[in-house]
Structure formats: C-alpha cells, structure tokens
Specification:
Protein name: NAD(P)-binding protein
Strand order of the largest sheet: 3-2-1-4-6-7-9
Number of strands: 9
Number of helices: 8
CATH class: Alpha Beta
Organism: Periconia macrospinosa
Shape: globular
Strand content: 5-15%
Distance between the termini: 58 Å
CATH topology: Rossmann fold
Family: Belongs to the short-chain dehydrogenases/reductases (SDR) family.
Largest sheet: 7 strands, parallel
Keywords: NADP, Oxidoreductase
Radius of gyration: 20 Å
CATH superfamily: NAD(P)-binding Rossmann-like Domain
InterPro entries: NAD(P)-bd_dom_sf, Sc_DH/Rdtase_CS, SDR_fam, SDR_oxidoreductase
Structural class: alpha/beta
C-alpha cells in the first residue's frame, strides 16, 4: 500500500498525539493540527506537517486551512476527527453558554472540518473519515448530559453521513472509546461546574473528586486503541480479511455497558411489542 496522508485534529495531547506516532510507525504521512500551534511544533522534528486549526473558527477559515494542506501535500486520504473536550455539571448548573460551547467544539467544529474535506474526497471517489465518539454516545451519565448530548448528536450525524457517502467510495468509521488514559479529565480538557444547589451538591462534589482521582488512572491504553483504528483504516492486523464495521465500541467498560444497554433495549421492545406496534391507523 502506498503511504497514506492523514489529517488529525486535536494533536496536542491524548488520542490525537498518539495517532501521530503510530501512523508514522506504519510509514504513512501525518498532518497534525491543534488550536495552539506551539503545542505541536516539536512534531516537525519527526517530519510531521503542522497547521494551526481551531475547529470553532468560521467555515471559511477552516476551508482555507484545508486548502493549504492540499496545496502542500496534494491530497488527504484519511481524516481523524478527534478534537473535543468534556463539560461536567448538572442541567441547572451549566449555563446556556456552556452548552453552546460544548456543541460548538464536539459537534459543529467536527461538521465544519468534515465539510471542508468532503469535496476533495468526493472528487477523488476515495477517502476515509474517522470520528472519535465515546461511551457517552450510548449512555448519558448524571452530570455528563452536555458531553453525552454532543456525542449522541455526533453519532446521529455521522450515521447519516455514512448513508449519504458510501456509494461514492468513501469510508466512515465511528469509534466509541470507554475510559482511556488520555488527558480528557485534565484541567485543560474538562470544564467542571460543581453544584451549590442543595439537592445536587453532595453528589456533585463526589463526582468532581472522583473524576480528579481517575485522571491518568483510566484502564484503557490509548496506544492499543489507536493501533486498532489504524488496522481498520488500512485493513491490516485485526481487520485483515474481514468486513470493517461502521461503528465500534472499544474498551472493556464500553463493551460491557453497550451490551447491557442493547440487551435492556431488546427486552423492553419485546415486553412492549404489542403496545409499540398498535399505533397504526385503522384501515
């Protein structure tokens, strides 16, 4: 296989940074981006192209950045939509602006980057789009509604994108990590609103303490997840000779929780089957 050109958002830490090293190890080329270019400048020493890219910028600004990447490299083969952060707090404690900011990055920023690259993929009739979702795209946990809402939204729009573009020869992968040892829970990537409302305060403080204590102690190994994603894109390793799934939960916790929710949903459908199917108009 000829070397692929990968463009990755959010490369200053976490999965984004890990992708850079694993992709280089496979002999491919990397275009690393970050909101703060100074945080990824050291990657240039590895032969990585670096670009400043804030996915909350305007569509025209993002389009211009993608045009510069294409001018330098001639093509993009794989897009990794990774940039995201997490807002923690109850519905009542998160401001409207907190909700807007959460969706602006995790949903609308991802849409804008993908829209900027889609015409290139469509023209070439080839290209792979990888979206890093979350267990929170399946389950809305208490105090995590804004983040879960953004990931639920991402799951729906990406599923629609997959249906729209598969016939063009484009591939779409939706990756759903559980708890991995990235910096998602660090102060730079987590916005936390501890509640002073008596009905929430005790649980809110306990949750904040738990999240701080879990930071850098999560069970998942980011390098192992990234290797699986590379296999899926390149159809090597664990993906060699088998059909690559559109959606894949990764992490023992994610597998367990998703399986439990699917089984509970199937049980509800069976129990309420007669009611659920009784709503058609009488003929």
């Amino acid at each position: 296989m000829a070397p692929l050109v990968w463009l990755i958002t959010g490369c200053s830490s976490g999965f984004g940074n890990q992708f850079v090293y694993n992709i280089l190890a496979r002999g491919d080329k990397v275009v690393a981006t970050a909101r703060d270019l100074s945080k990824i400048q050291q990657l240039k020493q590895l032969g990585v192209s670096t670009f400043q890219l804030d996915i909350t910028d305007s569509q025209s600004s993002i389009n211009a950045t993608i045009a510069k990447v294409l001018a330098e490299h001639g093509r993009i083969d794989v897009l990794i939509n990774n940039a995201a952060y997490i807002a923690i707090g109850t519905w009542e404690d998160l401001s409207y602006e907190d909700w807007l900011a959460q969706f602006d990055t995790n949903v609308f920023g991802t849409i804008k980057v993908t829209k900027a690259i889609l015409p290139h993929f469509r023209e070439r009739k080839t290209g792979t789009m990888v979206f890093i979702s979350s267990l929170s795209g399946w389950i809305g946990h208490a105090g995590c509604s804004a983040y879960a809402g953004s990931k639920f939204a991402l799951e729906g729009i990406v599923e629609g994108l997959h249906a729209e573009t598969a016939h063009l020869g484009l591939k779409t992968l939706l990756i759903e990590p559980g708890r991995f040892r990235t910096k998602l829970l660090s102060s730079g990537n987590m916005i936390a609103r501890t509640s002073d409302i008596p009905d929430y305060a005790e649980k809110s403080r306990a949750q904040m303490e738990g999240l701080v204590g879990e930071d850098q102690k999560q069970p998942g190994d980011p390098a192992k997840l990234v290797e699986i994603v590379l296999d899926l894109v390149r159809e090597e390793g664990v993906a060699q000779g088998i059909e690559v799934p559109f959606r894949l939960p990764l992490g023992f916790d994610c597998y367990t929780d998703v399986k439990e929710k699917c089984e509970a949903t199937l049980a509800t459908l069976e129990t309420w089957r007669n009611v659920a199917t009784s709503t058609d108009m009488e003929t």
